[in-house]
């Protein structure tokens, strides 16, 4: 009696395990290894049921007993093949982990590379912009203090004041590049429009900026990152794309803030650029910063077909 109860409990548990395994096939995206293991469990449950009938009815033929043994062999084969494919899954997961680590290294390299370039640009602006102006002020002040009467004092004074004013304007420009006051005071849409207007004045590219935003403000980190992303994309277009037109759209759709960036430049192989050691640094930087605010970044580009970038951030 206890043997029959044990067999019944075993059969029930076997079928429960089989049901759970079959339900997980879809979750595993119909992976062949899991399908084979599920079939093995199904046959194992049927074999357990067969053993129950064998125990109850001891008059079964030798053919039925032979079938039971071959079912055991089939179960073993299915489980061996399934486990073999599971090994391949672990190899695949290991490869994905290696790729993830390489991607993180590239992103970190892109951030360091961009920050270093920003430091160099800042130093260059100070040296080339403020340096000569302050030297001119110093010379004018020295002339006034030396009592040199060969030049009219008023002319020296006016020259010094002009250099001081130019220094102030240069400092404002450098400060604005570091932290745009328009972004701080008037928001993302007006800051992007101001930036694109200045770029258009140079005449190298025509920029069409469209937005459905009015005076709405968002989290300061979101605004700064999206503004920097647009600036980086425009700079990439100017440096590398040889484009004639750029389209930028900034729209709020329900609780999502979306940016679409497109140019008609010469394009590039995006996948290849992202895999190169020093390639796509700007895009890696944008990608990492967008990820830091839980946004999505997607870039499509092919040689001769320009670039399309879509950014979406939940607000």
Question: Topology, please?
Answer:
Elements: H1 2-27, H2 32-56, H3 62-146, H4 153-178, H5 181-186, H6 188-202, E1 206-211, H7 220-241, E2 245-253, E3 256-263, H8 270-275, H9 281-292, E4 296-301, E5 307-314
Parallel strand pairs: 1-2
Antiparallel strand pairs: 2-3, 3-5, 4-5
Helix pairs in contact: 1-2, 2-3, 3-4, 3-9, 6-7, 7-9
CATH superfamily label of the largest domain: Histidine kinase-like ATPase, C-terminal domain
The outline comes out as rod-shaped
- Strand fraction equals 5-15%
H/E element order: HHHHHHEHEEHHEE
Give the CATH topology of the largest domain.
Answer: Heat Shock Protein 90
**Which stretches are poorly predicted, pLDDT < 50 over at least 5 residues?**
none
For the secondary structure, the number of strands is 5
Q: How far apart are the first and last residues' alpha carbons, in Å?
A: 66 Å
Structural class: alpha+beta
Mind describing the biggest β-sheet? 5 strands, mixed
Please give the oligomerization state of what you see: single chain
Which features characterize this protein?
five-stranded mixed β-sheet, 315 residues, 5 strands, alpha+beta, 2 domains, Heat Shock Protein 90, 12% strand
Explain this structure to me?
This protein has 315 residues and is α+β, with helices and mostly antiparallel strands. It folds into two domains: 2-103; 180-314, 2-Layer Sandwich (Heat Shock Protein 90), CATH 3.30.565. The protein has nine helices and five strands. The chain has helices spanning 2-27, 32-56, 62-146, 153-178, 181-186, 188-202, 220-241, 270-275, 281-292, and strands spanning 206-211, 245-253, 256-263, 296-301, 307-314. Helix 3 (62-146) crosses helix 9 (281-292). The protein starts with a helix and ends with a strand.
């Amino acid at each position: 009696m206890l043997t029959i109860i044990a067999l019944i409990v075993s059969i029930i548990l076997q079928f429960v395990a089989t049901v759970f395994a079959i339900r997980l096939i879809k979750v595993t995206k119909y992976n062949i290894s899991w399908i084979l293991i599920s079939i093995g469990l199904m046959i194992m449950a049927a074999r357990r049921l067969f053993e129950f009938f064998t125990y109850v009815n001891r008059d079964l033929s030798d053919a039925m007993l032979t079938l039971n043994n071959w079912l055991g062999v089939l179960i073993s084969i299915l489980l061996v093949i399934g486990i073999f494919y599971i090994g391949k899954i672990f190899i695949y997961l290991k490869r994905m982990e290696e790729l993830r680590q390489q991607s993180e290294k590239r992103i970190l390299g892109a951030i360091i590379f961009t920050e270093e370039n920003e430091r160099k640009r800042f130093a260059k602006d100070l040296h080339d912009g403020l340096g000569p102006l302050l030297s001119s002020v110093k010379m004018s002040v020295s002339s006034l203090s030396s009592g040199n009467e060969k030049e009219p004092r008023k002319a020296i004074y006016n020259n010094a004041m002009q250099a001081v004013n130019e220094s102030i304007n240069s400092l404002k420009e450098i400060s604005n590049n570091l932290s745009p006051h328009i972004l701080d005071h008037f928001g993302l849409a007006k800051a992007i429009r101001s930036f694109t207007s200045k770029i258009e004045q140079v005449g190298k590219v025509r920029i069409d900026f469209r937005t459905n935003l009015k005076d709405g403000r968002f989290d300061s980190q979101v605004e700064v990152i999206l503004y920097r992303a647009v600036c980086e994309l425009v700079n990439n277009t100017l440096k590398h794309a040889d484009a004639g037109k750029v389209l930028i759209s900034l729209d709020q759709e329900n609780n999502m803030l979306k940016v679409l960036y497109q140019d008609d430049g010469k394009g590039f192989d995006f996948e290849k650029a992202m895999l190169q050691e020093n390639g796509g640094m700007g895009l890696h930087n944008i990608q990492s910063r967008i990820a830091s605010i839980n946004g999505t970044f997607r870039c499509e580009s092919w040689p001769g077909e320009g670039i399309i970038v879509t950014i979406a951030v939940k607000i």
